[in-house]
User: Fold these one by one.
Assistant:
Number 1:
Amino acid sequence: MKAAVHEAPDAYAKASPLSRVSAAAPPFFVIHGDLDSLVPVEEARHFCAALRGATRQAVVYAEIPGAQHAFELFPSLRTTFVIHGVERFLASVYSGYLTAEESRNDRRPAPAPAVEAVASSEACLDTPPKEGGYSARTGNTPARITQPVPSE
């Protein structure tokens, strides 16, 4: 933006993802590098917390160790793991949608979407399922992806 926050607070509010948080928010998979120098990692964490407080949809957060803003510009092992994680997230969301559609057609209650059906309180990505979720590795450092399981 070409103005400071105090000079154009309405413009900043309109540009902020936080202004879009609502109960009607779709499922989200937020991926953020912990060394991002353009957008502080705390902002991504705050955004996810706000989403989780507002919607019943899946909100998954991946904080990638050692990653900078736009870390995926150049292909790497880290990018490959993130792509696989995004594919799994989208497949899970779509599977939940298809199950809900089938249930509506059959007039029976739909089971919870797969993203919410993780065995523990967090889901991670890219190794076989185990207690505690999944784990992705970028080099020697695990990337943690958290998804609280909603309590009903």
Number 2:
Amino acid sequence: MSIPTITTSRLVLRALSAKDLDPLYQVFGGKDVMRYFPSTDVPTRDQVQKMISHQLKHWDEHGFGWWALEPREKNELIGWSGLQFLPETDEIEVAYLLAPAYWGQGLATEAAKASLRYGFEELGLENVVAIVHPENAASRRVIEKLGMSFVDQTPYFGMDCCRYAIGPASFEKVQAIDRVARKGREHFESGYYCAEGVLLAMAEAKGVQSDWIPMMATGFCSGVAQTCGTCGALSGAIMGLGLWAGRSVRGDDETVEANYALVRRLIAAFEERFGSTNCRELIECDLSTEEGQAFFWGNDMFERCARFTEEATRMGMSLVGDGDGSFA
């Protein structure tokens, strides 16, 4: 069959071919790549060649399979992602693998979301699973960011694995969150600052339109008015949680505690994802100084802050989406 090419914001998902043998072999040979596989041995070149041939046949038989992954800006194979039929359990699995140099950048999540989107929107699948070694914390975080729910721990491929699953309705909720997150980034790139962009996007998702929204966030931007304080994107998301899940009347202590719990989860998630919640640590400079401003603009920290803005919006909306998802 003709294997479709899919383009995301940072990746190209294209058909595997014979020319991918050497680069894919190099990917499998990367440090710790095989750590959580049933066999930790690096596949031989012959095994990788058979893997490519099997995937092309898999596409012909099932109408889905693995794609080769390339960054949009360069013609270089960095891994694979896609859907795989599991005949032993009659399930369809979403899976991914990237070279170590591309870990920790959200690319596995981006590729897997594109794979799920193809499965639900183009193929009309009703359920997709993800199978992961219980100790593979990084891969489990990717799976959870896909909106997949833990089902059970059961043997797959000769080892105990955690099984997650997702259906089209839950995935649409994930996509709705993504749309709000992209809006937060768009606001930032259009000239609003970090806290303003996040709060604007979360307010719009709530149906709130007011000039007061960015105004109340301005002082929290740039690490709380260039004081090397909390990241403005995170502050904007905390304000967004107040808009969505804060109290409106005195004495509503139950709502206060529920909001505090959401904020604590947000802060923990942000710190886990980026290693800090402090503006200066995150962008490696002091924005109140000329040297800091020169470093910021000379080292593409704007793009880094755009990513913080997008991810903080996504994290905030994921927390309020734990309810009925009515924002979708």
